[in-house]
Specification:
Layout (H helix, E strand, L loop, with lengths): L18 E2 L4 H10 L3 E4 L14 E4 L8 E3 L4 E5 L4 H10 L2 E2 L11 H6 L16 E7 L5 E4 L6 H4 L8 E8 L1 E2 L2 E11 H6 L1 H5 L4 E6 L5 E10 L13 E2 L23 E2 L19 E8 L3 H9 L2 H4 L3 E9 L14 E8 L3 H15 L5 E2 L14 H4 L3 H11 L8 H6 L3
Parallel strand pairs: 1-3, 2-3
Antiparallel strand pairs: 4-5, 5-9, 6-10, 7-8, 7-9, 11-13, 11-14, 11-15, 12-13, 12-17, 16-18, 16-19, 17-18
């Protein structure tokens, strides 16, 4: 192996090799055609072996693909390895925007959409939902394109790397806009639960940060689209933050996007963290489960009951909302969701032991784990088919386009997609 790679936070060391960094789509095609097993890597912002392979690892950070805006179609086509923060700056300079951003602008486009990664907001579907087309290198090394009218696109967008190496992604865009961000502290849990819908809908994007202890939610982050009208009322029972805040206690808020209600470009407010800083805490693990919106309060109450298990392992948790979509393996497929996110201390053995307990508590609420973060399974007594109505269709799609398992790996076999 010519290179040693780990996931972004060092939670997994890639076992495959060789590691190649092609600069053209033609080079990607040649690599795939010559490899017995192959997987693609972007920013490596995952926490397990999702992108690992026993064979060739294709790192896309040097892929030279021009970013092309189609103003008439309101789309942008971008290279798979481009980070969202870089794409956002380019779009804004040209007068365009994306509908949402993840909390980290550091993540690469192709890996983000392949795992149904999301931002936050009652009306903001995940980043995958913006995909209008894909260019990918299939198992035989052939480059093919899927457009918005292709019947397989809904199964191909969130494919966990199992369909091939994505080289270009086409995304929907809209005119640029401004966002103002404010932070509130010490929201009583009684208010948070009794007025959950009101609070989560009081701005374009709302996040609740908690360590699950005490009688109050630590922080409420509200991101208001200036073009969406008047910001909702004060967060009842909470206090305005006295100054800039970081969601992880003890971390420097200089790494976070500007707060205090100061309007600014969408891409400088929708993420929690600035592109030029190390995101979140750096040395950490992550998990997340998404539950149907109607189960939100009950699921939160179930997690509060696990505070003695969870809190000692936590840096912070985040509660946020995601609009539904129709992508087969999206965690928001079929309806609106609430995301229950855990940023863990780097205590892998203890976190792994806690995962099945959390999944059992959330199983009655049809919780779906985020594909790129740590989980142990679909939940006690559940199957993936229970959680994903198009599961068998997705598995058949992967088998049809990759019958010899060139893109299969331990992760896909473990979840039963290969």
């Amino acid at each position: 192996m010519t290179d040693t790679l780990t996931t972004w936070a060092g939670s997994h060391t890639f076992r495959g090799g060789p590691v190649v960094r092609p600069t053209t789509v033609e080079e990607v095609a040649a690599v795939v055609a010559d490899a017995r097993h192959v997987r693609a890597l972007g920013s490596r912002h995952s926490f397990h072996d999702l992108a690992d392979s026993p064979g060739t690892l294709v790192v896309l950070d040097r892929l030279d693909v021009p970013t092309t805006i189609d103003a008439d179609a309101r789309t942008v086509t971008v290279g798979a390895g481009v980070r969202y923060g870089e794409l956002a700056r380019h779009l804004h300079a040209q007068g365009w925007a994306l509908h949402t951003m993840a909390s980290l602008p550091h993540i690469a486009v192709a890996g983000t959409v392949a795992t149904a990664t999301h931002g936050s907001g009652d009306h903001a579907a995940n980043l995958s939902a913006a995909v209008r087309g894909l260019e990918l290198v299939g198992a035989d090394g052939t480059v093919r394109t899927l457009g918005p009218d292709d019947q397989e696109l809904a199964g191909a967008v969130v494919a966990l790397g199992g369909l091939g190496v994505v080289t270009r992604v086409t995304l929907a865009i809209e005119p640029t806009y401004e966002v103002a961000q404010e932070v509130w502290t010490d929201l009583p849990w009684s208010q948070a639960l009794d007025r959950f819908e009101e609070i989560m809908g009081s701005a374009w994007s709302v996040s609740l940060f908690t360590d699950w202890t005490g009688d109050a939610v630590d922080q409420v982050w509200r991101k208001h689209r200036v073009d969406a009208g008047t910001l909702g009322p004060e967060v009842a029972g909470a206090r305005p933050a006295p100054g800039p805040m970081h969601p992880v206690p003890g971390q420097d808020p200089a790494a976070c996007t500007q707060q205090g209600g100061v309007p600014g470009p969408w891409h400088e407010r929708l993420p929690h963290f600035r592109l030029e800083f190390t995101p979140s805490a750096g040395a950490e693990l992550q998990s997340e489960w998404l539950v149907p919106r109607e189960h939100a309060v009950a699921a939160v109450q179930a997690l509060r009951g696990l505070r003695d298990l969870v809190s000692p392992l936590l840096l912070i948790s985040e509660i946020r909302s995601i609009a539904g979509d129709d992508l087969w393996l999206s965690t928001a497929h079929g309806g609106d969701r609430i995301g229950l996110h855990f940023t863990w201390k780097p205590l892998r053995a203890q976190v792994d032991a806690a995962l099945p307990v959390i999944e059992e508590a959330l199983a009655p609420f049809d919780a779906r784990p985020h594909w790129g973060k740590l989980f142990s399974g679909p939940g006690a007594g559940r199957t993936w088919q229970d959680l994903y109505p198009r599961w068998d269709d997705a598995r058949a799609l992967l088998e049809r386009h990759d019958p010899e398992g060139r893109f299969a790996n331990d992760f896909l076999r473990r979840v039963g997609l290969r």
